[in-house]
Amino acid sequence: MIDAHVHIGKSARLQIDASGEMLVQVADALGISRIFCTDLTALFYDMHEGNRLLYEEMRRFPDRIIGYASLPSARFGREALEELERCRQDYGMRGLKIYSTPEASIAEPAMIPILEKCVDLDFVVLAHTTPLECEYLMAAVPECRFLMAHAGGQPFAKGDWNRAIMAAKRFPNLYLETASSTIDTHFLETCVAELGPEKIIFGTDTPLLDPWVQLAKIRETAIDARARELILGGNIARLIGLAA
Prior knowledge:
alpha/beta; TIM Barrel; 9-stranded mixed beta sheet
């Protein structure tokens, strides 16, 4: 299993202090082999320092921690593009994580060259976005492999995962990531029925959300074993080129 949505590091805003060692121990308890991590310093404060800190944790746990480069904003221009290049070439990271809010939406022209750079670097993008924001961004850079964090199941997307499914139907490279504090009836079954299991990515949002609940949401549901295997790791492994 691969968890595609994990936070590492410190954030006073979110009251989190999560070390690589702690996160690997949680993964061990759950039977998760790899965790795809975002550093909170990079995501909300300082991209250079945070991405460097994540690289240090990746070196400590090379077979367990995969790194997302993170940017606190789309508006750093060339500096952001150079940071992504550094994270891929020097740190070996495999994706970008970026956060969008109603006050600072990434659905804007400044994000387009960043997505184009992610295509060049063979990065997947995990973004905290609404379905409408995803449609704007995917229409601009349809070749980008884009993971909608929480599949619409977050407050400023109004928890509208049905709308997320509609967006994912329009764009072949738009995927839905499962972590959410909402546990709606038939959420996963509907996603699989409408999109196929190949477009669903397992994530827990550890340590913000309870990872045992997020895993049970996938395991204890009416989908077949092949679909479950793809969702719990096969799909993200395929997207980032991990060996089986």
